[in-house]
């Protein structure tokens, strides 16, 4: 892959997450019954930050879980014989909760669909929102995000990489070009 440009720097990522946290609070008229669930891998880092921001703004800590969608992917048979299954941990009852499902990039919608299936197997929330740092378009399923940090139209030959301080040592969103073969 060939690096093309840095789309968001550390400050822009921070501002996008701050805006999303405010929008979540506003849409829910507070934080009662609210919880966050981060999708492996970078969705977890982003969900933790949103939880911290919501606590900073509202003075209340909301629960957070982590979700692995590996076994719910529709391309499971194509990604290898031994998929890497990671931890799903939602240490609270989802019943009656408004869940904010958090991921780094929304692309085709297939990851979000798998996450919805995985989440519903864990309980019956009253409402599920989708929050993403980047929406790059090219949807294959009728799924949209409720909270978007940045809409970044891309071509299908491009790749958006989200880096987080926790996972990569820096906060950034980068655009890469897939090399023609």
Features:
181 residues, alpha/beta, five-stranded parallel β-sheet, 4 helices, 8 strands, 29% strand, globular
Overall description:
With 181 residues, the chain is of the alpha/beta class. Helices cover 28% and strands 29% of the residues. The strands form two sheets. It has a five-stranded parallel β-sheet with strand order 3-2-4-5-6, with helices on both faces. The chain has a three-stranded antiparallel β-sheet with strand order 1-8-7. α1 (10-28) packs across α2. The model has no long low-confidence stretch (mean pLDDT 95).
Low-confidence stretches: none
Q: What is the averaged pLDDT score? A: 95
The total of beta strands comes to 8
Helix content bin: 25-40%
Which series of helices and strands comes N to C?
EHEHEEHEEEHE
Shape by Cα distribution: globular
User: What composes the largest sheet?
Assistant: 5 strands, parallel
First and last CA, distance: 11 Å
Beta-strand content: 25-35%
Separate helix tally: 4
Structural class: alpha/beta
Strand order in the largest sheet: 3-2-4-5-6
What does the radius of gyration come to? 16 Å
């Amino acid at each position: 892959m060939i690096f093309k440009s840095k789309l968001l720097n550390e400050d822009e990522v921070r501002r996008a997450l701050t805006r999303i946290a405010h929008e979540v609070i506003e849409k829910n008229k507070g934080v009662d019954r609210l919880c966050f669930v981060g999708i492996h891998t970078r969705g977890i880092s982003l969900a933790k930050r949103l939880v911290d921001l919501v606590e900073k703004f509202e003075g209340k800590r909301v629960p957070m879980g982590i979700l692995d969608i590996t076994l719910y992917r529709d391309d499971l048979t194509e990604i290898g014989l031994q998929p890497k299954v990671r931890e799903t941990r939602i240490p609270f009852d989802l019943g009656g909760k408004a869940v904010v499902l958090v991921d780094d990039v929304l692309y085709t919608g297939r990851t979000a669909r798998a996450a919805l299936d995985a989440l519903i197997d864990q309980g019956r929330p009253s409402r599920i929102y989708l929050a993403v740092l980047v929406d790059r378009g090219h949807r294959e399923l009728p799924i949209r995000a409720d909270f978007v940090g940045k809409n970044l139209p891309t071509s299908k030959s491009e790749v958006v990489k989200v880096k987080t301080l926790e996972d990569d040592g820096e906060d950034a969103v980068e655009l890469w070009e897939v090399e023609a073969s």
